[in-house]
């Protein structure tokens, strides 16, 4: 079996490079590299993939913009497995065998997280020149756009600087095709501004939202850390986290949702990719508050493919499909419960790749209780999670406050620090 690096997105998408006999593949755009990738954002020598004693490592060689796995920067080097996808410049590369085997195939019992690995592995849209040109500009004479850090089908995220307070911020800019008229842009901006008064230690704070020509933007606090999706990939054991760590995710995010509920705000897209763990204190934060709802006021719904919806299918409450007029904070409870379930088991409870498949899964058998997947996990916590993901909203907890109280009760019984 030979090992290769496959460019799955970017200017040279489709090209493959075999790992040489010496076990080191030098990656970059210059003649000193083994790849000569035609990506203008790469350095001449950007990074390396090394094979040592049967293990694979991604080594940062100081390339401009760095090297990222699941949105987390690689510092010096990071262990890889077959199937790992990393990002450099505008390119996404996957380590694989020539037979296409991934980590789940190579390691018996290895479980991958549907929804999370699809998010990490899905080629992201490239950033067009007009969005690149925003780098170096300043919004509202306060928020300086410094560099692009990520992009999705709906938006581009930049690292920036709040010049008023000299602190880093994240600036999310909606792609122009998502809101093509002034009324849509105004509705999106107003929707985002409704959460500006919300201040909570477990919510990524929105500092300002506005318009600049055809662009809608929002500036939030910058969080040094990783998403829960990246956390699963980096420290999970067989795709799972210890139940006590998952319990902490539940407590922190339930506190955030309780605060949002007091402001009558429903997130609508609580998923592992929208939950962040801050490096400094290991606290979990809820990000992109109301962004999904704001998108629904624009052309985003019309621009998705037939059968698609805004949000990650594996974590979407059934009422968002069958009874959209009655979406409330219990829908966010379902999203959090599905995320906790995924962290405990390695799979979302109703994993699906399409809306018809999700509907079929929701009408099928009830998911297996999480405690059966982990030896030593708390059965009370498992039952709590199962109630959060009940199909009917009336069968779930009435609100986030009730969820939080039950989480705290379970934690006290297990000797956890509340």
TrEMBL record:
The keyword tRNA-binding does not apply. Gene3D superfamilies: 2.60.200.20, Phosphorylase Kinase, domain 1, Transferase(Phosphotransferase) domain 1. This is Serine/threonine-protein kinase PK-1. The gene is spk1_2. It comes from Rubripirellula tenax. Keywords: ATP-binding, Kinase, Nucleotide-binding, Transferase. The keyword Phosphoprotein does not apply. PANTHER family: MITOGEN-ACTIVATED PROTEIN KINASE KINASE KINASE 20-RELATED, SERINE_THREONINE-PROTEIN KINASE NEKL-3. Its EC number is 2.7.11.1. Pfam families: Pkinase, Yop-YscD_cpl. GO terms for molecular function: ATP binding; protein serine/threonine kinase activity. Transmembrane segments: none annotated. Residues 25-74 form the FHA domain. Residues 143-410 form the Protein kinase domain.
């Amino acid at each position: 079996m030979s090992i290769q690096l496959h460019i799955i997105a970017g200017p040279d998408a489709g090209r493959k490079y075999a790992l040489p006999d010496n076990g080191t593949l030098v990656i970059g755009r210059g003649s000193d590299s083994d790849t000569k990738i035609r990506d203008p954002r790469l350095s001449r020598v950007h990074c390396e993939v090394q094979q040592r004693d049967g293990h694979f490592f991604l080594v940062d060689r100081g390339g401009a913009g760095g090297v990222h796995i699941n949105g987390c920067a690689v510092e010096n080097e990071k262990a890889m497995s077959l199937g790992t996808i990393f990002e450099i410049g505008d390119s996404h590369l996957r380590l694989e065998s020539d037979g296409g085997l991934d980590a789940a195939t190579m390691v018996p019992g290895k479980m991958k997280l549907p929804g999370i690995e699809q998010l990490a592995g899905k080629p992201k849209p490239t950033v067009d020149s007009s969005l690149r040109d925003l780098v170096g500009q300043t919004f509202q004479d306060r928020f300086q756009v410094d560099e692009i850090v990520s992009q999705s089908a709906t938006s581009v995220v930049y690292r920036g600087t709040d010049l008023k307070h000299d602190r880093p911020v994240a600036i999310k800019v909606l792609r122009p095709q998502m809101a093509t008229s002034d009324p849509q842009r105004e509705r999106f901006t107003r929707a985002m501004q409704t959460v500006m008064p919300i201040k909570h230690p477990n919510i990524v704070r929105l500092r300002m939202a506005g318009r600049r020509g055809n662009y809608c933007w929002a500036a939030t606090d910058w969080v040094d850390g990783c998403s829960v999706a990246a956390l699963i990939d980096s420290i999970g054991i067989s795709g799972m986290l210890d139940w006590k760590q998952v319990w902490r995710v539940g407590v922190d995010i339930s506190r955030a949702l309780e605060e949002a509920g007091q402001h009558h705000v429903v997130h609508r897209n609580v998923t592992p990719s929208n939950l962040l763990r801050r490096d400094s204190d290991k606290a979990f934060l809820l990000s992109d508050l109301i962004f999904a709802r704001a998108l629904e006021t624009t052309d985003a719904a019309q621009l998705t493919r037939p059968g698609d919806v805004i949000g990650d299918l594996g974590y979407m409450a059934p009422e968002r499909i069958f009874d959209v007029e009655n979406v409330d904070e219990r829908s966010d409870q379902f999203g959090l419960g599905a995320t906790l379930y995924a962290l405990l088991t390695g799979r979302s409870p109703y994993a699906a790749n399409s809306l018809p498949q999700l509907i079929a899964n929701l009408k099928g058998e009830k998911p297996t209780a999480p405690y059966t997947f982990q030896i030593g996990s708390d059965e009370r916590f498992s039952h709590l999670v199962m109630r959060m993901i009940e199909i009917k909203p009336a069968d779930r907890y009435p609100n986030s406050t009730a969820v939080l109280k039950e989480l705290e009760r379970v934690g006290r019984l297990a000797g956890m620090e509340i």
